[in-house]
Amino acid sequence: MGKDVIIACDFSSKDAVMAFLDQFKDEKPFVKIGMELYYAEGPAIVREIKARGHKIFLDLKLHDIPNTVKKSMAVLSALDVDMCNLHAAGTAEMMKAAIEGLTRPDGTRPLLIAVTQLTSTSQERMESDLLIKEPLDKVVLHYATVAKNSGLDGVVCSPLEAGIVHENCGKEFLTVTPGVRFADGDVGDQVRITTPEKAKEIGSDYIVVGRPITAADDPVAAYRRCVKEFVG
Ligand code: C5P
Q1: Which residue from 4, 37, 200, 227 puts its CA 20 to 30 A from 56's CA?
Q2: Is 68's C-beta closer than 6 angstroms to any atom of ligand 1?
Q3: Is domain 4-230 given the CATH code 3.20.20.70 in the classification?
Q4: pTM, full prediction
């Protein structure tokens, strides 16, 4: 399983994302396209970035009835993305339907990753708003296990949870982890953070890094530093 750095391209226009990617002359980073860019520019932006030779994690976090998710995943699969995701809260039935939709006639498919509880959800909010009374880490591990048993490839989680997810779901079950900051960098609004080096040590498979690269004075240098610290 290839360890890699995924750049979160949180831009709201094609011009902005292309101006950013144009700075990379010697490498083709794995990029994450989220709702902001996808809703602004539609599937064409995915095709264009793919045509430039980048791998793509399409972060649209699907969550709907199984039939709708299955059909939508078939559309994403035809877009030829490398990784996409959904909310494990949609239940095992929805996750299995998603895999069916994603799988191409030749049996291949993009990696499918589950969001467990969003990192913005606190224990307090989960209890009061979702009426889930178990400890948050237990809920995250349970969702990860249901995702694994449904045939998914991994979860999005904090790098701090990567070790425990691997212990419970196996080494092959991927951990895709945002919340990464350089030791000497700005934390911004992220709370539970680690450095690329620490994420590697704990066992993250992919780190998702946005502003430490996109807002850096020299994004290419920041990306290279990330790769050096995380991949080695
Ligand atoms: O700029 P920054 O490095 O904080 O970007 C992290 C990226 O990962 C953003 O696109 C954010 O939406 C995403 N993300 C996150 N925490 C999650 C899930 C996704 O930060 N739990």
Answers
A1: 200
A2: no
A3: yes
A4: 0.95
